[in-house]
Amino acid sequence: MIYDHTVASSESWAGMRQPMPLPGRVGGVRDQGRRLGRPDREVDGELAGLVEHTGGLRLDPAFKENLAETIERFNGFAESGVDADFGRGQAPIGRAWNGPNREGSPNPTMAPFASEGPCYCVIVVCGMLDTNGGPVTDTGARVLDFDDNPIPGLYGAGNCVASPAGQGYWGPGATIGLGITYGHLAGPNAAAEPEKGFTY
To answer: 14-20 contacts: CB < 8 A, separation 24 or more?
Structure first.
């Protein structure tokens, strides 16, 4: 993730600032972000120190040229207010999680990179927060089969089942709340299940 000094010097922790550190908390690129003079050399140097964890991942030789082109394209979107690649700022949820707007920008979620350095970098790797799928449950936390019939004795709650919100996201803590709620629903329903005999 590449960002400019305006972002790096902001005192705001609002919106989706992470993983960019607050001012005065700048460490190595590997963990918190670092001022870069030559992004291609410095980022690749950091990746070289991580090869045992990344399977040998290194920076593509075209990174420097592609970075310049990407920043130029992004700046054009920021100046026009229309992100033709990812639609930043079009959906209310994107604006709600954006944090403070940059002054003079027609799109509250974007602003052009500064014309001069420094720039900063954080290496971002894959991770997971929520799930968007899994077995579908009914209002009693019973897992449903392909015909929407409850599977006897099978219950689900939390992130291991499909969210009752569908493609929506109710906000921070929703996954914990759903785990507690559906766990509470599943408990008495499971206890009321008829006793099953097993043959060995």
So the answer is: 14/99, 14/100, 15/97, 15/98, 15/99, 15/100, 16/97, 16/98, 16/99, 17/99, 19/122, 19/124, 20/120, 20/122
